[in-house]
Amino acid sequence: MIALIDYKAGNLTSVRKAFGALGAELFTPERADDLATADAIVVPGVGHFATTKTLGPEWIEAILARVGEGRPLLGICLGMQWLFEGSEESPDLPGLGLLNGRCYRLPSGEVKIPHVGWNSLDFQHENSIVDKVEDHAQVYFTHSYVAPVTGDTVAVTTHGEPFASVVQRGHVAGVQFHPEKSGDVGLQVLRNFLSMVA
Amino acid sequence: MLSKRIIACLDVRDGQVVKGINFEGLRAAGDPAELARRYNAEGVDELVILDITATLERRRALADTIRAVARELFIPLAVGGGIRTEADAAAAVDAGADKVSLNTAALSNPLLITTLAERYGSQAVLVAIDAKWEGDRAAVYVRSGSTPGHRDAVDWAKEAEDRGAGEILLTSIDRDGTKIGFDCRLTAAVSQAVSIPVIASGGAGTLDHFSEVFTAGRADAALAASIFHYAETSVRSLKQHLRLHGIPVRL
After folding, report:
1. For B167-199, what is the HEC assignment?
2. Which residue of B has its CA nearest to A120?
3. What CATH number is given for A2-196 in this structure?
4. Which of A11, A143, A191 is the mutation pick for testing B, counting most B CBs within 10 A?
5. Phi-psi region of B135 (alpha: psi -120 to 50; beta: other; left: phi over 0)
């Protein structure tokens, strides 16, 4: 079973529905202990980085323990930002620290912030999370903060400046866009995650 | 580069898609789930379901219609019409809406914008503004365009943004259903005043009308209903036309 972490950052219906369309059933753990049986973990989320504080030390410990055992982890949107060390949006709140770097607000100026709409994934290198996805495929974004481009960046997207839109290190992956709202391309990314699950 | 979005609007009454001219004289145009499937296959970027008579008749947006449309749809879905309270919004979100569109209720109770933005995030809160020109001023109208809102559209858009709205859905009452083109002057005035995306609505009749609203009108997205419902124009051919004119779209 795949655990879908509910920390009250937005609505999980559409994420559950998209995985359901691919035949995957997700459960929502009520306590961190419930993660013990999880084959994989999905951290969704929209909104402010501060909402991740709902996930206290016991959750962080349980998630890191599962990842340490080799269980795949997928972060979506805010959930992807949480994989990093932290965010400018809530400077005192640490992230999971599985990926290096801190998230920051996209500079406005020529472009409107928030970044809302369909934009392209420009591949930096290949990795399993974007298997069968074409370079420059378009996906749906809605966010103001972004993760930095690092060695873990699989794809960048440009809105004023490039940011990391897909990341992967081993069995830890993250997408800044919403795969559950990105049509066939989004469903393929979720399918790729499912194929990482043993 | 961020694409300009093409949004199809399903004006729904009693579970059926209808489309009027200047908000009056409705005629039936089809089953919402069937239309949603067709638009999705054609590459529409987003769908809006508006329960157009909900405000007048004090009915709530039809959860069954939302569920039927959301079932197979993996693109953003916004729902509006008669959303007056947090509970109305929650019902729409629980049925599968990604965004709720507030119109009359936002103007009479602007705190609702903030309440919903705090609960679901700003990306889930669309403020719909229906406006028409009165001399040099774009005046806001509510209750499906029937009642003056006693507000200037540009000022109201700015206030909505400050209160937590994630997008503005701007409809020109003068142009709605006329097919003579979007109101680029109105759209540009609002788009330049706010930093959140502005969706232009009302008046689409030809492919060039869309090019105009994305350039002169500075719109981030354009919404249309009747031009797509009666298969006068497919979403795909519209997007091909826009790409030829140098406007970034998802194809």
Report:
1. EEEEEECCCCCCCCCCCHHHHHHHHHHCCCCEE
2. B1
3. 3.40.50.880
4. A11
5. left
Question: Which residues of A are catalytically annotated?
Answer: 77, 178, 180
Quick check: helix, strand or coil at residue A164? strand
Beta bridge partners of B5: B221
Q: Give yes or no for a cis peptide into A44 (omega within 30° of 0).
A: no
**Top-tier CATH class for B5-244:** alpha beta
Q: Which two tokens stand for residue A39?
A: 């084959």
Q: With left for phi above 0 and alpha for psi between -120 and 50, is residue A53 left, alpha or beta?
A: alpha
ipTM given for this complex? 0.89
Q: Backbone dihedral region of A57: left (phi > 0), alpha (psi from -120 to 50 degrees) or beta?
A: alpha
- Tell me the domain boundaries of chain B: 5-244
Torsion of CA A146, A152, A155, A159, to 10 degrees: 20
Tell me if residue A195 falls in helix, strand or coil: helix
Distance CA A8, CA A44 (A): 10
Using one digit for the tens of pLDDT, what is the confidence trace for A53-64? 888 899 999 999
Contacts of B72 in chain A (CB under 8 A): 21
pTM, full prediction: 0.92
Tell me the mean pLDDT per 10 residues along chain B, length 251: 95 76 50 85 93 60 83 91 89 90 95 92 94 95 86 98 97 92 98 96 94 98 82 84 97 90
Instruction: Give the domain ranges of chain A.
Output: 2-196
Reading the block at residue B166, the tokens are 């994630």
Chain B contact residues (CB < 8 Å to A):
1-5, 40, 45, 70-72, 74-76, 93-94, 96, 98, 120-124, 166-167, 195-197, 220-221, 250
